[in-house]
Specification:
Elements: E1 5-12, H1 16-34, E2 38-42, H2 47-53, H3 59-67, E3 70-75, H4 90-100, E4 105-111, H5 124-127, E5 131-137, E6 149-154, E7 157-161, H6 168-183, E8 188-193, H7 199-215, E9 220-225, H8 226-235, E10 242-245, H9 247-260, E11 268-272, E12 283-287, H10 304-316, H11 321-336, E13 339-340, E14 350-351, H12 354-369
Parallel strand pairs: 1-2, 1-3, 3-12, 5-10, 8-9, 8-10, 13-14
Antiparallel strand pairs: 4-5, 4-11, 6-7, 11-12
Helix pairs in contact: 1-10, 1-12, 6-7, 8-9, 10-11, 11-12
This protein binds 3-isopropylmalic acid and magnesium ion (MG).
Length: about 375
């Protein structure tokens, strides 16, 4: 890693900018109070980039992302850009970042904090202590497979086409990440597919099994069909440690897992590429929540997923686990103290704005650091 730590912040759309403002405050705090400084640049992505440049991600911003040690992204999308053709929509900017930086492993933890155990729509007894990690394949599968498109078949009939494709290499590299992470956790991996219906799922299962036998026999491996997994996540989510799955199933199951924790506003994610010859690993960190246009600009969004994403960034890109833990502890304390943004509001708690949540967290950081 070069001497200075290069961070690119892409606030994006909707609540992205207001959430990233709080993230920025904590980055500044790290410089002031812990002597950890970053070379921070900001750029546009999504609808914001469309408005300024006509495209959801410019080549210049893509190059900034490639030059950075890590990218922190807010959120993309909104009703204003929904009528635009697919390739020029805000989401296409995010997909291009993922694809061009080859961020094939998407880590989506779902953690139930004790202070928020009642925020879950499931019974507290079912989710208390939940700590699972979804590793979603992010640069392949039906999101990128060819052929794709909408075909005119004549006679007023049209056909929509998308293709699920996976190579053995794509399957193995993401499964490897899952097994390695499981070793640092509870050593259990559940691989999720539809091997009962799809050839790509059958291949997925075969390759994960092979890799397991060759390199990871110390990790416990199980397999599950995606539909069953969706059900098991609700029935008994604590049975899981690490779930590894393809792009589309991972998209769906990670939203479901997120809701187990009570609020999308709490969950971070990391998207990682392969480590190159210089030991650098392309990485992008973003909250799982979207741009939430309905509440954008009102200073009521929950900044915690953004802050937890920063913590993941410190841990995975900069080897700063102590600072990551500090942020997580500060958040935990503030929640214990009763502060709640609207999305996690509960009876008897104190409702606060995005900014006030940020204030409280920086104050908690000061105290922890004293
Ligand atoms: C996600 C989102 C994206 C996806 C959208 C915004 C393209 O839902 O990160 O889960 O489908 O991957
Ligand atoms: Mg999604």
């Amino acid at each position: 890693m070069s001497a200075s730590k290069k961070l690119l912040i892409l606030p994006g759309d909707g609540i992205g900018p207001e959430v990233m403002r709080q993230v920025r405050r904590v980055i500044d705090w790290l410089g002031r109070r812990r002597g950890i400084t970053f070379e921070v640049k900001e750029g546009l992505v999504g609808g914001a980039a469309i408005d300024a440049h006509g495209v959801p991600l410019t080549d210049a911003t893509l190059n900034e992302a490639k030059a950075a040690d890590a990218v922190l992204l807010g959120a993309v999308g909104g009703p204003r850009w929904e009528k635009i053709e697919f390739e020029r929509r805000p989401e296409a900017g995010l997909l291009r970042l993922r694809k061009d930086l080859e961020l094939f492993a998407n880590l989506r933890p779902a953690l139930v904090l004790e202070a928020l155990v009642d925020a879950s729509p499931l019974k507290a007894d079912t989710v208390r202590g939940l700590d699972l990690l979804i590793v979603r394949e992010l640069t392949g599968g039906i999101y990128f497979g060819e052929p794709r498109g909408i075909k005119d078949l004549g006679n007023g009939i049209r056909q929509g086409i998308n293709t699920q494709v996976y190579t053995t290499t794509e399957i193995q590299r993401v499964a490897k990440v899952a097994f390695e992470l499981a070793r640092k956790r509870n050593s259990r991996v559940c691989s999720v597919d539809k091997a009962n219906v799809m050839e790509s799922g059958l291949l997925w299962r075969e390759e994960v099994t092979r890799l397991h036998q060759e390199e990871f026999v110390d990790v416990e491996l199980s397999h599950m069909y995606a539909d069953n997994c969706a059900m098991q996540l609700i029935r008994n989510p604590r049975q899981f440690d690490v779930i590894v799955t393809d792009n589309l199933f991972g998209d769906i199951l990670s939203d479901e897992a997120a809701m187990l924790t009570g609020s999308l506003g709490m969950l971070p994610s990391a998207s990682l590429g392969a480590i190159d010859a210089d030991g650098r690993r392309p990485a992008l960190y973003e909250p799982v929540h979207g741009s939430a246009p309905d509440i954008a600009g009102r200073d009521i969004a929950n900044p915690i997923a953004g802050l937890f994403s920063l913590a993941m960034c410190l841990r995975h890109s900069f080897e700063l686990p102590d600072e990551a833990t500090l942020i997580e502890k500060a958040v935990s304390q503030v929640l214990k103290g009763g502060m709640r943004t609207t999305d996690i509001m509960a009876p008897g708690m104190a409702r606060c704005s995005t900014t006030v949540m940020g204030d409280s967290i920086t104050r908690a950081l000061d105290k922890l650091n004293a």
